């Protein structure tokens, strides 16, 4: 009898713990949760907890090729950070920035009611308009709005030109949607705005709902965390963990310089193709270092960064 009573008490206690957990479920992830997700980042953070990769690195990243970025990540064991096959408003423009994530799901009324109640009452989000404006409200300069719209095209349009203008005004960037937009013509008229999308349609958003902001999401083949840094080009999109950005940039920059040096020496017929394509001899390494010292132009990195790079690597 005592055992049955004790089990009953534990059941009631567990019920209340679970109930409080449900009530406390946030639409927007807390700063503590984001910090835990991105614990390998040791630098400055945004007010919402996301890593604050420097603007200078974001700018340098634009010059890195998708293949170079992918190669560095793959060598570090990050094999699921790329997604291709996009429709792009301005294909010849590159975009980099700090990721703000949003996840959408097919509409379920009871869950949507809970999301709206939590968002408006507990988190102070806007009660006017659709919940698809909520991720836009928190954007700051340098952010890229990345949304999993589960590939929905018709009735899956996450923004039109009004929200597009708001996005650009807040972030000076664009969007990456595994979903669609409407009024692509109007969006294309927003100077500086760009979008990587899976499609476009004239319909309004219907039968779908926002379920989370700044939680982990899936974008096609890629797993994306809030605070990742995105490199978006016409050849695809790479999502880079914040703690790897600096190393990725310098590694890719040096790789590009090695390629430039190798191509030049092959044109000059100084070395054979096999010598450049295999492990370099000490003679070629010295030639490369001398070539760097007399580089015709400005190197993409500082001399200190270059020296540190070669200190820590055995070619």
Structural description of this entry:
The chain has 315 residues and is of the alpha/beta class. It contains 12 helices and 13 strands. The chain folds into 2 domains: 55-242, 3-Layer(bba) Sandwich (Glucose Oxidase, domain 1), CATH 3.50.30; 246-312, no CATH class. Helix 4 (66-75) crosses helix 9. The longest helix is centred in the C-terminal third of the chain and has 23 residues, at 245-267. The protein is elongated. Residues 1-24 form the signal peptide. Pfam families: RraA-like. Keywords: Signal. This is RraA family protein.
Low-confidence stretches: 12-23
Largest sheet: 9 strands, mixed
CATH topology of the largest domain: Glucose Oxidase, domain 1
Cα-atom Rg, whole angstroms?
A: 24 Å
| Whole-number mean pLDDT | 92
CATH class of the largest domain: Alpha Beta
Counted by DSSP, the helix tally is: 12
Order of helices and strands: HHHHEEEHHEHEEHEEEEEEEHHHH
Strand content bin: 15-25%
CATH-defined architecture of the largest domain: 3-Layer(bba) Sandwich
Tell the overall outline: elongated
InterPro entries: RraA/RraA-like, RraA/RraA-like_sf
Protein name: RraA family protein
Keywords: Signal
Signal peptide: 1-24
Compact description:
This protein is of the alpha/beta class. It has two domains: 55-242, Ribonuclease E inhibitor RraA/RraA-like (Glucose Oxidase, domain 1), CATH 3.50.30; 246-312, no CATH class.
């Amino acid at each position: 009898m005592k055992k049955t009573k004790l089990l009953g008490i534990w059941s009631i206690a567990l019920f209340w713990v679970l109930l409080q957990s449900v009530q406390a479920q946030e639409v927007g992830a807390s700063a503590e949760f984001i910090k835990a997700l991105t614990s390998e980042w040791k630098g400055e953070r945004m007010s919402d907890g996301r890593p604050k990769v420097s603007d200078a690195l974001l700018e340098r990243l634009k010059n890195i090729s998708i293949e170079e970025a992918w190669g560095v990540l793959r060598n570090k064991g990050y094999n699921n950070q790329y997604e291709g096959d996009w429709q792009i408003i301005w294909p010849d423009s590159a975009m980099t920035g700090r990721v703000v994530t949003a996840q959408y799901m097919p509409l379920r009324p009871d869950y949507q009611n809970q999301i709206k109640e939590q968002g408006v009452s507990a988190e102070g989000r806007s009660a006017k308009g659709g919940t698809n404006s909520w991720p836009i409200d928190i954007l700051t300069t340098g952010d890229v709005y990345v949304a999993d719209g589960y590939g929905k095209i018709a009735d899956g349009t996450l923004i039109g030109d009004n929200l597009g203008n708001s996005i650009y005004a807040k972030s000076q960037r664009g969007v990456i949607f595994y979903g669609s937009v409407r009024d692509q013509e109007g969006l294309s008229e927003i100077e500086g705005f760009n979008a990587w999308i899976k499609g476009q349609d004239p319909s309004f958003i219907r039968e779908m709902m926002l379920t989370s902001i700044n939680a982990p999401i899936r974008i096609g083949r890629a797993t994306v965390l809030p605070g990742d840094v995105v490199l978006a080009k016409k050849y695809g999109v790479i999502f880079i963990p914040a703690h790897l950005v600096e190393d990725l940039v310098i590694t890719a920059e040096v790789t590009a310089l090695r390629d430039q040096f190798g191509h030049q020496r092959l044109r000059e017929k100084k070395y054979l193709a096999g010598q450049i394509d295999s492990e370099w001899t000490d003679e070629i390494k010295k030639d490369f270092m001398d070539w760097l010292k007399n580089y015709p132009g400005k190197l993409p990195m500082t001399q200190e960064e270059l020296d540190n790079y070669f200190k820590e690597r055995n070619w």
